[in-house]
Amino acid sequence: MRIAVDAMGGDLGPRATVEGVAHALSLLPANSAVLHGPSHVLDAQLDALPKSLRFTRSRLQVSHADTVVHEADRPSQLLRMPEETSLHRCLMSLARDEVSAAISGGSTGALMVLARRYIGMSAGLERPAISCAVPTEGGGRCYLLDLGANVDSSPEMLVQFAHMGAAMASVVDGVARPRVALLNVGVEPSKGAHRVRQAHVRLSAVPYRSFEYTGFVEGGGMFAGDVDVVVCDGDVGNAVLKSSEGLARMLGKRLQHRFEDGIWTRIVSFMARPALTRFHHELDPVRYNGASFLGLAKTVVKSHGSADARGFSFAVQRAFSEAEERLPQRLASRLLDV
Amino acid sequence: MRIAVDAMGGDLGPRATVEGVAHALSLLPANSAVLHGPSHVLDAQLDALPKSLRFTRSRLQVSHADTVVHEADRPSQLLRMPEETSLHRCLMSLARDEVSAAISGGSTGALMVLARRYIGMSAGLERPAISCAVPTEGGGRCYLLDLGANVDSSPEMLVQFAHMGAAMASVVDGVARPRVALLNVGVEPSKGAHRVRQAHVRLSAVPYRSFEYTGFVEGGGMFAGDVDVVVCDGDVGNAVLKSSEGLARMLGKRLQHRFEDGIWTRIVSFMARPALTRFHHELDPVRYNGASFLGLAKTVVKSHGSADARGFSFAVQRAFSEAEERLPQRLASRLLDV
């Protein structure tokens, strides 16, 4: 199985992406990747790979692209750009089925616009949504969407997100009839923003065969494990996801600080290290890196812009597993079966 | 200093509010409170106070109210309701200056509608916003608003929130020129929901004397300590606040679980208890209970609906301190001095 990588996307540039891909390939010996970007830059990165990853090099191919998409490029510009950016070429090779999936850590907006153009949507869907799974109290997980691909979403789009999220929970986690809720400021039907109340009316109007609509849920409900899917506009979901990551990071630092506070706690800390390490592991946003673009006809994964090599490796592994699972095709057939 | 308490608000009812007020008064020997609600219910609760709190009873007065506001009552209904609910009477006594502040753990919408009617707004402001301070990495704090008093906010309202939040950081934390940012899905000017981009244009148009507008910030920026105030619509702020609380609660439980995992970690856990307890303390959403209603002419505090006696006690203490600081008056004069 082969994947196309926009090696120039992401805040840390090709150093993080190239090493990240190599790390993922070191764990997946049957897979390979095509790195898109200026060949002199990427060849230099490949030469600089840590010794322990050099054996993956034969499975890492470079495909030259002259230019890159910048965070500040507007969607309208992107569509008129020459097809020589690393992102354009990465998605075009997926469109031509030369690879099974594409991944980028660059601008979400650019990825979305170009993915819609080259890859296209599954039947009946208007726009892709970004989703990730958050861990819940009982040890399960809950899909949150949209995470920022769409702002100013219409009620109709929120309804589509509900279908897409439910399909994800069914296909990936095997939940027979996922419980789907709308994120709101309160649980009473009279509360909330206009579009949220309108979406509630539509989702309540008919019972769905493929999922159970459970009404409104507040922000805490996501982690409580009461529902399998939480739907909101990208403006809200993005703020929730990024603030949760920021909070987890801050708490991790504070916990460490607490355990460096004086000699006695330092000794205890040494002994407690295995338990603390496991906890840090659970807190680690890197492990949850890689968000799925739902609704597209093929597998496209967005890595966090700030991901380091380890984070990018997780996102690459996710892209391979979604492509192996044939997630877009299974989502599409599930969506037809409402 | 005396406070009016809607003793019937909150999910746990008068048991939590009465004990919470008594607990706060046990720490503040010069203060007193008036409890609004059905007198037979409240008298019974006072009789059932824990022994250690009974000495506060002489400073706890009951003011009979026949009925209560229910979470499902619509704002239009509230304004037509007889003025015999505990919330109506609580706010009316603040309006008549019989007390220095009012507090309720009931419906945010009801509190907002009735507070606007009876207490009124500071000059030049349209609607109150709810704000609370979140802790930041460096040990400081950042004010987040609005937390759910307003949904579908106009750009103009977001600009007013910026002024209100800046005034809060100046008055409460003594920040000379607070850094104020708009919460958004990205930091580029072309990104985000329509109202957020419009508010950005307005806030960027002129430099403000009393605060520095720093542009867009993403969700994680709130905890990073880069800004003093983060402004967003109530739909977003409410989701961020409640999901942060949910996440902190989940992480606290998981940490505990990690330390109960096997005999060796149990022994370590026993020794690590002081550090863990301090950490749990920092995580504890209860300690941050009580959100300020900014923009009202007098002090009104909203306690979390789910707060227990300890949580309600924190909110009561906050109400006393805001009234002592003459926060609404100082905010109003600060707002005139833009």
TrEMBL record, chains A, B:
Superkingdom assignment: Bacteria
Coiled-coil annotation reads none
Q: Which InterPro entries match?
A: FA_synthesis, Phospholipid_synth_PlsX-like
Q: Which GO terms describe its molecular function?
A: phosphate:acyl-[acyl carrier protein] acyltransferase activity
Known pathway = Lipid metabolism; phospholipid metabolism
Q: Give the chief site where it resides.
A: cytoplasm
Q: Which keywords are on file for this protein? A: Acyltransferase, Cytoplasm, Lipid biosynthesis, Lipid metabolism, Phospholipid biosynthesis, Phospholipid metabolism, Transferase
The signal peptide here is: none
Which EC numbers does the record give?
A: 2.3.1.274
Judged by the first EC level, this protein's enzyme class is transferase
Annotated catalysed reactions? a fatty acyl-[ACP] + phosphate = an acyl phosphate + holo-[ACP]
Q: Which HAMAP family is this protein grouped with?
A: PlsX (MF_00019)
- What binding partners and quaternary form does the record give? Homodimer. Probably interacts with PlsY.
The UniProt entry's sequence similarity note says: Belongs to the PlsX family.
Q: Which NCBIfam families match?
A: plsX
Q: What does this protein do?
A: Catalyzes the reversible formation of acyl-phosphate (acyl-PO(4)) from acyl-[acyl-carrier-protein] (acyl-ACP). This enzyme utilizes acyl-ACP as fatty acyl donor, but not acyl-CoA.
Name the record gives this protein: Phosphate acyltransferase
Task: Provide the taxonomic classification.
Answer: Bacteria, Pseudomonadati, Pseudomonadota, Gammaproteobacteria, Oceanospirillales
